[in-house]
Amino acid sequence: MSAPSQQAQHHYSVSVEWQGNRGSGTSGYRDYSRAGVIRAQGKVELPSSADRTFHGDRDRWNPEELLLAALAECHMLSYLHVAVQHGVVVTAYEDAAVGTMQQVGQGGHFTSVTLRPLVTLADEAQRELADSLHHEASELCFIAQSVNFPVLHEPRSSS
Description:
This protein is α+β, with helices and mostly antiparallel strands and about 160 residues long. The strands form three sheets. The protein has a three-stranded antiparallel beta sheet, with no helix packed on it. Helix 1 packs across helix 2. The longest helix has 23 residues. The chain is elongated, with a radius of gyration of 20 Å. It starts with 14 loop residues before the first strand and ends in a 6-residue tail after the last strand.
């Protein structure tokens, strides 16, 4: 009889503070700013807002961008991990991720995200293997495994 697998739990916390009261609170849809700040202990504050489409500040991060960034970064970190496991030496990594959100009434949801990683290798002869690792990385990415829409991969080539 084998021992049960050990499952670890990891806990995270952030605080979000709305900074958009212009003196009359939410007395009307255009009477308040969507400005906020996201904080985590020991980290730089992240200025936040709604998307410009929803009366937000384009100079601040919005939730849609943060979700896209979380997926792209999680995939990158998972990819680097599987690259090491397969003996693929990555010397640079960039992603130009895009996401599509469908608005339905006053709400909505993401319908897909496409990650477009550009991976530079120490040995270009490993390109086919390196490109195939994106599937394995996606399976390991906690964020990709937590969303209910497809997260696609379109590896790009620097040549």
